[in-house]
Amino acid sequence: MRTFLSRGIRALFHNKMNDVPTMDHYSQLSKIAMGAIMAALAVIFQSAGIFIGFGYVLSMLATWPMIIAASISFQIGILAYVTTIFLLAIVQPSEVLVFAFTTGLLGISIGYGLRKMKNVFKVMLFAGATMLLGIIVLITLFQFPILGPSVNSLGFGMLGSIFLFSLLYSWIWIKVSLIGMKVLQKAIPERKPSVYDREG
């Protein structure tokens, strides 16, 4: 029984970081272009949050483009994150805080974690803690009812529940992202070096 549980835990949380697809072999121009595309997708998904029902589901997908952008490089991720915030401020201001402190922030933390950390468990803890911090800031500093109008204060029990949910939510996104990044890498043809890439 103990062996079965240990294998189950390893299957859930073990994933070598050198197995994570990257775009390191692509040109800087390709990385910037991909970051811009991810920012545009994040705006589209997050803007759908104004529609009740299925719109909420689409708005959650704004996390994925940020994961991709941050996994390209942390600089590209931050650029895409800030660009998305500015665009949302123009086209859908009501979604700016939600993106900045939940969906977008979670995506950046997961993308960064996938590049820099050694295993899925550490990435999950880092992303879960980041998401928890973002929710705390929204509720306490901005008085934004991210959890509903009935939740206007955070006790220890509520914080614990939010953290557990954040861990589970982060783990789901990590697993989905690893699969999606492999598919995306295969879909984007590798750019071969040209004479313009040579120095001099």
In short:
The chain has helices at 2-13, 28-47, 54-60, 63-72, 74-91, 96-116, 120-141, 156-187. It has 200 residues and is mainly α. The longest helix has 32 residues, at 156-187.
List the helices and strands and how they pair.
Elements: H1 2-13, H2 28-47, H3 54-60, H4 63-72, H5 74-91, H6 96-116, H7 120-141, H8 156-187
Descriptive tags:
71% helix, mainly alpha, 200 residues
Instruction: Using the alpha-carbon principal axes, give the shape.
Output: globular
Q: Spans of 5+ residues with little confidence (pLDDT < 50)?
A: 193-200
Question: Structural class from helices and strands?
Answer: mainly alpha
Please state the average pLDDT score.
Answer: 81
Radius of gyration: 18 Å
Span between N and C termini? Answer: 64 Å
Question: Which percent bin holds the helix content?
Answer: over 70%
H/E element order: HHHHHHHH
Description of the structure:
Helix content is about 70%, strand content about 0%. With about 200 residues, it is mainly α. It contains eight helices and no strands. Residues about 195-200 have low confidence and may be disordered.
